[in-house]
Amino acid sequence: MSKTRFSIRETLRAGIIPYRNLFPFLRPYVPQFVVALVCGGLFAAATVCVPLVIKLVSAHAFSPSSDQVGMVGNTNADDVKNARSEERDSVLLGDPAHFHRAQRV
Fold it and tell me: What is the DSSP string of the chain?
């Protein structure tokens, strides 16, 4: 008994026949299928962006810049002390810029 080898084209043609027979039953659900594909693509894009967002947020939160005195990652006690004394002086002297800074926070 010899085995007959089918070409790739014949194998694909034979494999698609059951799906062609099911297509008339699936036709009413094509819009839901398209919406599901779009939502799946959006979910995949959002999942890929999560590490990028974490990188950006952590770089901003833990960067040693002068406007983040006393924030996480900046533990220099002299800087914190100087920032608090400047804020206290601006309140005591009636500096209107202090009120604007307080509103921004």
Answer: -PPPPPPHHHHHHHHHHHHHHHHHHHGGGHHHHHHHHHHHHHHHHHHHHHHHHHHHHHHHHT---GGGTTSTT---HHHHHHHHHHHHHHHHTT-HHHHHHHHH-
DSSP code string of 49-62: HHHHHHHHHHHHHT
Could you report the per-residue pLDDT of 66-86, keeping only the tens digit for each?
Answer: 555 555 555 555 555 565 565
The full set of domain ranges for the chain reads 8-61, 66-104
**What predicted TM-score, i.e. pTM, was given to this entire model?**
0.41
